[in-house]
Write a structure and sequence with these properties.
It contains five helices and 32 strands. The protein has helices at 18-46, 110-116, 126-142, 149-171, 255-264, and strands at 3-6, 12-15, 52-54, 56-71, 74-78, 83-87, 94-95, 100-105, 185-189, 194-197, 199-200, 224-225, 230-232, 237-242, 247-253, 266-271, 277-287, 290-297, 309-325, 330-338, 343-344, 350-357, 363-370, 372-376, 381-384, 394-396, 402-404, 408-416, 423-426, 429-432, 436-439, 452-454. It is elongated, with a radius of gyration of 41 Å.
């Protein structure tokens, strides 16, 4: 709407509404800026951004976890006389020939006698308390919710230990125990040297050559615990001895891994139960139903005398070099150029004598500089990209022989972004897992420590400009 006024001559004048027009221009400018910001934001969100990663020195150890069965030289000892068996030797204790292992209460009154005796308080020595603590800590660290049977094994082990300590306490006063009482018992001594265990499972005579897939079917596995102060008849199983410190673990493997293990000869093993490590000598068994690896040890058997199945981790390699993310690794195809047709000047620049076409259509030879990404001494060829050369180009050697560019090869590498653009660098991988790779350092065409590379090779292209903000 226009405002009207009458001037001196009687004419009516009209004046534009300036305020309304300025508001309209401001609104248009605001909408334009807002639209531009939205477009920039959308483009930013849709753009894949290159994240930098600084190359550092590091190491990786390859590891593989297996469920293994323990093979020992075990002997089951039977009871020579009937009665209530009371263990004196502790499970896991080493006994020599003639050492007292248990006693047999023929009257059945020994348990009542023990309960009637005042054993006093704080009867455990510091060593006995330390052994209890060690047993409890080892159980807590190795406990698995999926293997509740281990709780019962631990319970029986502690029960036997407590019984053994009580029996030992009684033995200190045994000379007067039978005077005026109805106690009749016999001492049973060890006839061999070995490590005592109070359980059996039918695998005591298992040998490496007897291993098959049924040995690893734990659903049908039965482990019988032998408890103290229970009635046992003649020739019943009482305890067993592991006669030799040398023992083995066995587990199934495939053909490729079996060959890898044989190359190692000795393998470092971590026992997951207590995190102890030990070196095992490798042996491989091929039988009708599969391939099995045997690792033999000369120590640590006593720590696992109460176990038939063990979870172990094989620490096969520990490679050191430049540590890079596996996501940074890419493959790129190159032309293979015979080394006889590539020259290098005093500045270290590479070049080839190539046939070119002049503006008038005539042919001539021109020296063209190029970048070399790798030299393969086995085939005597350089890897050169397509930025300068094309398939079908004709190259000339110093002896006037010719070479046609056509053959290709693939390199594994990363994109170096030190100079602000993506520059492919060949790498030699020493070891790789899902997350990282260890590559050889200080190679002629490769990486150096503290170089910057693209964290994700899929986010960059050859010679792509990389801003510092990325």
């Amino acid at each position: 709407m226009k405002r009207q006024e009458e001037n001196e001559s009687g004419k009516i004048l009209s004046f534009p509404q300036k305020k309304s027009k300025s508001i309209t221009i401001f609104f248009i400018l605001f909408c334009g800026v807002l639209l531009y910001g939205v477009i920039v934001m959308i483009n930013y969100l849709r753009t894949t951004h290159t994240v930098r990663y600084q190359v550092v020195e590091g190491s990786l150890a390859s590891s593989t976890i297996y469920r293994a069965i323990a093979v020992r030289d075990e002997k089951i000892i039977s009871n020579p006389t009937a009665g209530y068996v009371n263990f004196i030797a502790r499970e896991g204790q080493r006994v020599a020939v003639g050492d007292l292992v248990y006693l047999v209460d023929e009257s059945g009154n020994l348990s009542d006698y023990i309960e009637a005796q005042s054993l006093g308080e704080n009867t455990l020595t510091d060593k006995e308390l330390a052994d209890f603590r060690t047993d409890i800590i080892n159980f807590v660290h190795s406990y698995d919710n999926t293997d509740f049977d281990s709780v019962y094994d631990f319970k029986y082990s502690l029960k036997n230990t407590v019984s053994k300590l009580a029996n030992t306490k009684l033995l200190n006063n045994m000379d007067g125990a039978t005077n005026g009482s109805s106690l009749t018992f016999k001492y049973i001594y060890s006839g061999n040297t070995g490590i005592v265990a109070y359980w059996y499972d039918g695998y005591e005579q298992l040998k490496f050559d007897d291993i098959n897939k049924d040995c690893f079917n734990e659903k049908d596995y039965n482990k019988t615990q032998l408890l103290s102060n229970e009635l046992r008849g003649i020739d019943e199983q009482i305890y067993k001895l592991s006669l030799d410190d040398d023992w083995s673990i066995v587990f199934p493997v495939d053909e490729a891994f079996a060959e890898e293990l044989l190359e190692e000869d000795y393998v470092l093993v971590k026992f997951l139960k207590n995190q102890d490590e030990s070196w095992g000598k490798v042996n491989i068994l091929h039988n009708a139903d599969g391939i099995y690896a045997q690792l033999t040890f000369t120590n640590s058997m006593i720590s696992f005398v109460d176990e038939r199945y063990l979870d172990v981790e094989l620490l096969l390699k520990n490679e050191s070099g430049l540590k890079i993310p596996s996501s940074a690794i890419a493959e790129k195809e190159f032309f293979l150029i015979d080394s006889n047709y590539v020259t290098e000047d005093e500045n270290g620049d590479y070049g080839v004598a190539m046939q070119v076409y002049n503006e008038d259509g005539s042919k001539s030879v021109s020296v063209v500089k190029l970048e070399v990404y790798y030299y393969d001494a086995n085939i005597g060829a350089y890897y050169v990209d397509e930025s300068v050369l094309s398939a079908g180009d004709l190259l000339f050697g110093t002896d006037q022989t010719t070479f046609v560019v056509k053959e290709r090869g693939t390199l594994i590498g990363v994109y170096n972004i030190n100079k602000g653009y993506a520059d492919f660098k060949q790498i030699t991988i020493l070891y790789q897992n899902e997350e990282y790779a260890i590559v050889k350092s200080n190679t002629t065409y490769g990486l150096r420590v503290y170089d910057y590379i693209a964290l994700d090779a899929d986010t960059v292209d050859d010679d792509q400009f990389i801003s510092k903000s990325n």
